[in-house]
Amino acid sequence: MLMDERSYSITLDEILNNTNNAIIAVDPQGQIIYANDSVLNILEKPERDLIGQSITAHFPQTGLLRVLETGVAELGQQLKVNNTIFLSNRTPIYSHGELVGAVAVFQDITILQNFLDNLVIEHERTKELQRTLEVVLNTSHNGLIVVNKEGTVTMTNRAFANFFNKFPKDLMGKHIMEVYKNPKFIQVLETGEAVFGYVHDDLNGHEVIANRIPIMQDGKIVGALGEVIFKNVNELFALTKKVDLLRNELDYYKKTILKNNSSALELLKGNNQIMSALVQTAQRVAKSGSTVLLRGESGTGKELFAQLLHSESTRCQGAYIKVNCAAVPENLLESELFGYVEGAFTGASKGGKIGKFELADGGTLFLDEIGDMEMSMQVKLLRVIQEREIERLGSNKPRKVDVRLVAATNRDLEAMICDKQFREDLYYRLNVVTLTIPPLRDRKDDIESLIRTFIKKFNIQFAQNVMDLSIETQNVLMNHRWPGNIRELENIIERAFNMIDGSQIQLKHLPTYLQLLSGHETLPFVGGSLEHILAGVEKEAIIYALDIANGNKVKAAKNLGLSRAGLYKKLKKLDIL
After folding, report:
1. 413 with 497, same domain?
2. d(CA 413, CA 420)
3. N or C: which end of the chain has fewer CB within 10 A?
């Protein structure tokens, strides 16, 4: 045998020390008689500390002692040393048929074990996802079935299996043709084209509406999905009917809104030149986003102008929200305007509440009776106008709002500023565009057209056919001072509709205090003294004044030309609660 000039002599020790496996041997008493370098590295000890030592001193969990007792090898056993996992083969050593010791050969499998552990974890996750998918599929109202490219069922849900009075597991693994005949949805395996909303008239005797959809992977068809979206064609008819009903309701509300806007314009337009010019100005101002302040006596139609400003603006598709600042108590007005979060105060609704500013976002917010707002709220309103953002009660998170503000008042704001009852800075914020609406007594040339509008309105409301007023009645209405303005006129016409028994409104259908203006001889208090008659008329006039002022005694007193104290005296004298 030819060899290199150099001679090589490799010992068994060198061979064993250069293997990746750890090797350790013991004598029949379990004392270590050999350990290669891999064992020394694992234990981080020199050879002198191992040889002659008991194997259990260094490997408490070893099975070598068991091998010495039984003489039987143990293969593929797992061993853990210093957080390292090993795979161990333990073998008895025989010499001339006599057991003289045992040897263990073990290899580090930590990486492999971690890999296997991860596989187990991923397997559990996959099983959990599969369970979740099954729950989702079975929760779906729609029947679902999936086949692979060979047409074998790979997935289905309870809603689909119910068509055959079976469970999903009964269909899994079967060819679709075994499940039912003429499964149209698998045509998608050939065409690759999805079809939505087709009628399948024979799904085990059911007429259904379904979708068929190809399942693609890497540009190839690997399966198909069948989805039953209506279990019965009649369901589609019912849904169509419901949609038509909702559309009709929407059209009705749209027409109602347009009708209200049209009615507002009809009530505002008339023969009076000042009023006509004011309406034209309002229509022009509506196109801008500027804040508008409406001023005028109670009942002059400030809310009608607010509606007109909204309907003629670019925000007409947004919300129109009204807040009466005088009708909401001070402690509730802030939450009404800005909303609140859950737990903001005792009694707060669960989940919180959205405020009027947020409701009007993108639309118009009408603040009626702004002059009655308390000073503390005026400060908060000023900040919102300046910053264009609100904070709900109980929250420190600002929310941006895009609102067109329209405010209204019948009070003298300038005098209130002097009396420190209204903030001057808020006044200038609101007073960007001011529209002052004249009282009805200054536009009597519009009374006749207003009466016609109200008669038309109440004919529809009361299902009557009132044609006109008597000449005497018309004269009384034209000569009245109208302290309640348009609202008073509307109330009078409505009252007449409740009293009328023909096609013409006559003097007897008017309130007593108006009948007195005619000088009519016949009064409803015939038979009593003059004092009794006058007291009756006075009582009815006060009740009516309170009615048109919505119970506000300050407004009623002003309309009657009385002081507040004077009104209270008469209320007590006439026994009016």
Report:
1. no
2. 10
3. N
Helix (H, G, I), strand (E, B) or coil at 425: helix
* pLDDT above 90 for 203: no
Considering the domain architecture, whether residues 298 and 428 belong to the same structural domain is answered as: yes
Q: How far apart are CA 10 and CA 19, in angstroms?
A: 14
Q: Is residue 297 part of a domain?
A: yes
Look at strands 292-295 and 433-436 and give their pairing.
parallel
Ramachandran angles phi, psi of 337, nearest 5°: -80, -45
Shortest CA distance to 226 belongs to which of 212, 240, 214, 215?
A: 212
pTM tops 0.85: no
Q: In this model, does residue 3 exceed pLDDT 50?
A: no
CA distance 557 to 542: 9
pLDDT tens-place string over residues 302-342: 998 999 999 888 988 888 999 998 888 877 888 888 888 87
Instruction: State the amino acid at position 429 in one-letter form.
Output: R
| CA atoms of 9 and 520, how far apart (whole Å) | 148
Indicate the range of 101-110, 151-160, 181-190, 313-322 predicted with least confidence.
181-190
For the chain, the first-to-last Cα distance in angstroms comes to 136
Does residue 461 share a domain with residue 429? no
Number of CB atoms found within 10 A of residue 375's CB: 12
Beta strands in 457-540 (DSSP E): 468-469, 504-505
pLDDT band with cut points at 50, 70 and 90 for residue 364 = very high
Are 484 and 305 in contact, with CB atoms under 8 Å apart? no
Same structural domain, 282 and 399? yes
Average the pLDDT over 291-309 and give the result: 90
> Do residues 42 and 82 lie in contact, with contact meaning Cβ atoms separated by under 8 Å?
yes
Output the 3-class SS for 199-212: EEEEECCEEEEEEE
Q: How confident is the model at residue 406 (pLDDT cuts 50, 70, 90)?
A: very high
For the domain that residue 53 is a member of, what is the CATH number? 3.30.450.20
Task: Identify whether the C-beta of residue 281 lies closer than 8 Å to the C-beta of residue 274.
Answer: no
Beta strands in 126-176 (DSSP E): 143-148, 153-156
**H or E segment at 230?**
strand 220-230
| Angstrom distance (rounded) from CA 138 to CA 224 | 19
Q: What is the pLDDT of residue 284?
A: 92
